[in-house]
Amino acid sequence: MGFVSFFMLIGASAPAYGMHIMEGYLPASWAIFWWVVALPFFTLGLRSLTRITKANPELKLLLALAGAFAFVLSALKIPSVTGSSSHPTGTGLGAVLFGPLAMSVLGTLVLLFQALLLAHGGLTTLGANTFSMAMAGPFAAYWIYHLTTRLTGKQKIAIFLAAALANLLTYTITSVQLALAFPAPVGGFMASFAKFGAIFGITQVPLAISEGLLTVLVWNWLQSYTPQELELLQLIKKEPQSNESV
User: Fold this and answer.
1) What is the C-alpha separation between 65 and 218, in angstroms, rounded?
2) What is the C-alpha to C-alpha distance for residues 95 and 139, in angstroms, rounded to an integer?
3) DSSP secondary-structure letter at 121?
4) Which of 38, 149, 168 is nearest to 96 (CA)?
5) So what's the pLDDT on residue 127?
6) 78 — phi, psi (to 5°)?
7) Which long-range contacts (CB under 8 A, 24 or more apart) does 58-66 make?
8) Distant-in-sequence, close-in-space partners of 205: CB < 8 Å, separation ≥ 6
9) Cα–Cα distance measured from residue 81 to residue 85, given in angstroms and rounded to the nearest whole number
10) How far is CA 39 from the centre of its chain?
């Protein structure tokens, strides 16, 4: 887990609010708007989690692991050229394992605890942050994973792309949210979006690649130590029983 140690080392000096949109930063109208957009996903996600845990209670530990993975990665703040910081998201793994709706709940809980315990993000901006990191990112990861496995048959490449591109999409959506709230005096939304996107991209592209590689390492660990759970989720095939006579 060398990537985690690397993130912890260089993230220690970053500002407390990280790259989540900080408390009070969005105008009230936009903060309310993103809350309204995010709530239906959260409600559907609760239903999805209920179905998963009722059908297979033995998956609860793996659910907790997916949430912890997102919590740890998204709490590691990497200094950015903006004077703020960027961070991994960790949502791609949970989206592949349990689907984007379930990950929307886990991601929302992650962001809530970070806002309350780490001053990372905020409560008024929770709707915006959850939509970008816990909803848009996981949906992208889920679709990218299934499309890549269908086209290439290479599961680990699909895992890498799902995690990396979900990370990048999260910051693309954050750039959209900030550009909508703060359009440039000259050029409006597009000029503002280009500015935020270009600045974030300098830090986020290598960070997304690192997150993709780390997620593949974790996937390898899961295949070795939790094969029964992955079989239940139909993510790996059950090993055939040997019929050899003794």
Assistant:
1) 11
2) 7
3) S
4) 149
5) 95
6) -105, 125
7) 58/228, 58/229, 58/232, 59/98, 59/229, 59/232, 59/233, 61/229, 62/97, 62/222, 62/226, 62/229, 63/94, 63/98, 63/102, 63/106, 66/93, 66/94, 66/97, 66/98, 66/103, 66/106
8) 168
9) 8
10) 17
Q: Look-up: residue for tokens 């949109």?
A: 21
Rounded CA-CA distance 118/95 in Å is 24
pLDDT at 244 over 50: no
Q: CA 93 → CA 2, 14, 40, 203, 214, distances in Å?
A: 18, 25, 22, 21, 10
> Which two structure tokens, joined as six digits, stand for 196?
């935020």
Q: At a CB cut-off of 8 Å and minimum separation 6, what does 33 contact?
A: 127
Closest CA to 237 of 245, 225, 228: 228
As given in the structure block, the two tokens for residue 244 are 């050899």
**Distance, CA of 138 to CA of 102 (rounded, Å):** 9
Given a contact cutoff of 8 angstroms between Cβ atoms, the answer to whether 65 and 184 are in contact is: no
Q: How many residues are given for the chain?
A: 246
239: amino acid identity, one letter: E
| Percent above pLDDT 90 for the chain | 68
Which tens digits make up the pLDDT trace of 51-68?
999 999 999 999 999 999
Distance of alpha carbon 81 from alpha carbon 99, whole angstroms: 33
Nearest-angstrom CA–CA distance, 25 and 165: 26
Q: What is the pTM of this model?
A: 0.85
Q: Rounded to the nearest 5 degrees, what angle is found at the Cα of 243, between the Cα atoms of 240 and 246?
A: 135
Q: Is the pLDDT of residue 78 over 60?
A: yes
Nearest Cα residue to 131 out of 14, 4, 244, 38: 38
